[in-house]
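Study this chain:
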Amino acid sequence: MTREPLTLASTSPRRRQLLEMLGIPLRVVPSHVPEVRRPVETPVDYVERLAREKALGVRGRLVLGADTTVVVRDEVLEKPVDPEDALRMLRKLQGRTHQVVTSVALVHGECILQATDVTSVVFRRMTDDFLRAYIATGEPMDKAGAYGIQGYGAALVERVEGDFFSVMGLPLRLVLDLLAQAGERYEFGGAAGQGGGPPVERPDCASEQEVPAR
């Protein structure tokens, strides 16, 4: 970035790795937001609220928050509480199509910009022994839906219909769009500035969500 690094309000190593893959300078400042779904919230409303709250919970000129959840047959699958819970989730997912909902929110100045992706993932049919062997790797325990597509969890997936990076937890195309709207257009080599790519109309803060007093 041109003036200071992007602040990532997340402890996710995968989100950090994806931004570093593009050469975007960043600093990580975890935002400790309780991930508790409200009774009236849809899955999209839920992840959008958490992404905003994470971004608002950290100070910085440009702060990025993100949240991801897995939805199958209208049930939200968050991080498993133990191996048996992970097995319960994976049994629900195997042989079916589910949705991965990821929202990203960027706080810049007095505005909040936000975008959300919904990607469908189809799982293979698998035996309980296969699923238990996957759970024994430890990989599912800190991931929504009890799997990580970028690791051993790739062996569970038949196909992805949408944004692979969104399933990992960060739809890069949406992040770059938000940065461009904030006046920080991506350039190869880790810089950001005014050149490169098509013109992007910068939104008026009045047409976006305003940042509450912090």
